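step=encode ok
step=design start
structure_in=
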């Protein structure tokens, strides 16, 4: 799976975005270490707060199906009807990724289906708090 192929999965997932309030459609594609892809889109709510970002949709789908090892996530977003563009994950999604992904090696791919920039999770969420911190490790 190339980075651009993973981004293509994210763009496909954007088509299912439910975003009547922001009109901003986001897609994500999460790659497991054994090559499976879990996609997600943002799902909004008329009471706003319950809105779920595309990244968390993909993560929760994967976790709820027993996955635990993740290599990368591709994300892109834009107003509905336009082609997906660079879309930086929100802080909440970065922290959720931190729960399940190794910060130094997990890659976050941002850009378009024509080109991506690869960041590590540690670059996007430096000096982070994670599961081991609760145990004093
Ligand atoms: N959104 C995502 O799905 N992922 C992000 O990383 C940024 C924001 C969604 C949430 C909301 O439905 C819309 O984009 C506008 O904020």
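sequence_out=
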């Amino acid at each position: 799976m190339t980075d651009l192929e993973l981004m293509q999965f994210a763009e496909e997932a954007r088509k299912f975005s439910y975003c009547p309030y922001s009109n901003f459609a986001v897609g994500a594609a999460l790659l497991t270490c054994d090559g499976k892809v879990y996609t997600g889109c943002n799902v909004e709510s008329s009471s706003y707060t319950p809105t779920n970002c595309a990244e968390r949709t993909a993560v929760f789908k994967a976790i709820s199906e027993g996955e635990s090892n993740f290599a990368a996530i591709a994300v892109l977003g834009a107003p509905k009807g336009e082609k997906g563009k660079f879309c930086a994950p929100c802080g909440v999604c970065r922290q959720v990724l931190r729960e399940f992904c190794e910060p130094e090696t997990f890659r976050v791919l941002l850009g378009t289906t024509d080109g991506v920039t690869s960041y590590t999770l540690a670059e996007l969420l430096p000096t982070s708090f994670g599961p081991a911190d609760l145990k004093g490790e």
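step=design ok
step=annotate ok -> Residues 76 and 87 are 5 Å apart (CA to CA).
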